Amino acid sequence: MQSFAALLDALVYAPQRNAKLWLMENWLAGTADPDRGYGLAALTGALVLPHVRASMIRALVESRIDPLLFALSHDYVGDLAETAALIWPSAGEAPTPMAPSLAHVVETLAEAGRDAAPALLEGWLDVLDASGRFALLKLATGALRVGVSARLAKTAVARWGGVALADVEEVWHGLAPPYLALFDWLEGRAP
Questions:
Q1: Which of 49, 109, 125, 154 is 20 to 30 A from 177 via CA?
Q2: Tens digits of per-residue pLDDT, 159-185?
Q3: Total-model pTM
């Protein structure tokens, strides 16, 4: 999760197209499966975790922080995930060894019901630093808004894999997260 959080932070502050491509290519090269597949799905808008809602996040934060302080902070910051990530009380800002992997978060939230999701989120928010909390909440709500379109993410995949973008787009419709077959093909392990 921390690697994905670092990628999102870097993408937010990199306005140039080529810088975003470079960041995504390096992240793809340095991240193992299935984390990179779930991260790619999040970047392209193909990841859906239906049991996490904005109202759930608000309720979690208001259980720990004064609701008026949270409302004022949210009005000032303007983004629910960013506000919640920054205001969430934590013992320290260093991620603990218990910080979950991206794949663990996605797979657990996908299998969890609506009743189990708040407790899962709360536990992860407690062990992640502000950057990790921001990535978790953006991932869970599906609203990344880091300046990356699906086409730009596919372009990064094509460049990283050394194939034409048209080739990636040709097979994309038949793929599903975490895109293991795509990465096997791009790394020469499968046709």
A1: 125
A2: 999 999 999 999 999 999 999 999 999
A3: 0.91
